[in-house]
Amino acid sequence: MRLISSILLAFSLTINAQQQKPLGESLQSWFNKAKSYIPSAATSPIASTAAKTAAANVVSLTNSNWESVLSPSSSDQAHGVETWMVFFSGGNKTCYGRCGRAEKAWNESVAVLAADPSSPQLAYVNCDKQPVLCATWSTPVPTIWHIQLPVPAKDQSRPATTIHIVGLNTTTVTAKKVAEILSAKKFQDVPVYEGALHPFDGWVARYKLSKPLGYVMFTFANIPSWAFMIVISMVSRQMM
Fold it and tell me: pTM of the full predicted structure?
């Protein structure tokens, strides 16, 4: 009898606790349970195919391989230049979740670009996974870098590397607009980049400081603002 009484008492207390639970929390709990039974949307077959095509035709650049990958090959000696289109994108950290449309447009355009025998080499950088490389190049996302790498002459001299940085609108970009960067030469609408952080010809690159500076910029970008405030506070107290 004592055991049955204890069970009934515990059950009664549980019921009372549930009744005292705020209505908002109860509704949220019921909503979460209902949502768990709803199947997630299936991936579009077209988007899936485009992503596979992009993976097969696009070189993934990293902080350790970009210098060796982005170098003109001997097969381009006759043309004098090797052209690349490098797509810089990111996820929640570097693009704040706004690069999804640009990613879709890029993947769909790759099939068109890869089918053209005269198309440039294609490369991709995910700044969430390669933050130091993106800091080294000081690139916003999403952007496409149209790069013309000159082939060194017989005397090993090399003309300047021409770069056009084309920004992509995260709300209006389409595969057609990406393809037109090349087909309609839209990259020429953007001035040639000649800044100090030019990854091939800038003075930072000439003095072999690109990677060290990239690590420094990446480190400072990840220091929380409150840490700077503490340092400033300590320095100001020492000066007073």
Answer: 0.72
